[in-house]
Design a protein that fits this description.
heterodimer; A: seven-stranded mixed sheet; four-stranded antiparallel sheet; B: about 110 residues; three-stranded antiparallel sheet; globular
Amino acid sequence: EVQLLESGGGLVQPGGSLRLSCGVSGFTFTNYAMNWVRQTPGKGLEWVSAISGSGDSTYYADSVKGRFTISRDNSKNTLYLQMNSLRVEDTAIYYCASEATRHFDDWGQGTLVTVSS
Amino acid sequence: QSALTQPASVSGSPGQSITISCTGTSSDVGSYNLVSWYQQHPGKGPKLMIYEVNKRPSGVSYRFSGSKSGNTASLTISGLQAEDEADYYCCSYAGRTTWLFGGGTKVTVL
């Protein structure tokens, strides 16, 4: 059974940092690119970042470029998102999702990030 | 890049068919046959229902089908059932390893 489990969310002040993790099981991790997608009540789903199966290539939405860093540890079947210089508008539920060919096959249950003073 | 446009809500009676539209531009929906649709029940993560415009993953009911014409993609649910009540999101590959999502459509089964 495929499972993706996010963790690391919480309350952080504007300008602060947070590191999200996504543990994966049930499929060959290195065969899949991995993505982070976030969801806010007002703006729906927004693609945030992607990383290739090997970890050599990374991609970011303009809204997070320069502030967020995606990475993966293939020996631990784990995906990460380092979020720095957080803004109020980064408040959202963050999902990790596997990607085979330009669509998101499986998703986690999400972890809530709240940026507020 | 702006989000794809979906109707906020669509409703239908059990057994009926409904269609959800998803309008983008010639730079996203119109350029790639890489439109996917996701179902989301409250408190859950999204679930892939359709990929590459009209392909169904294993385990997804045949009642779900997708199509595309120009810059607009559509998801049709036939034989509407109570369990289909959920939010539905379209998504299009937009080039340079970026994706755009629609704002979501709430499907209500009357």
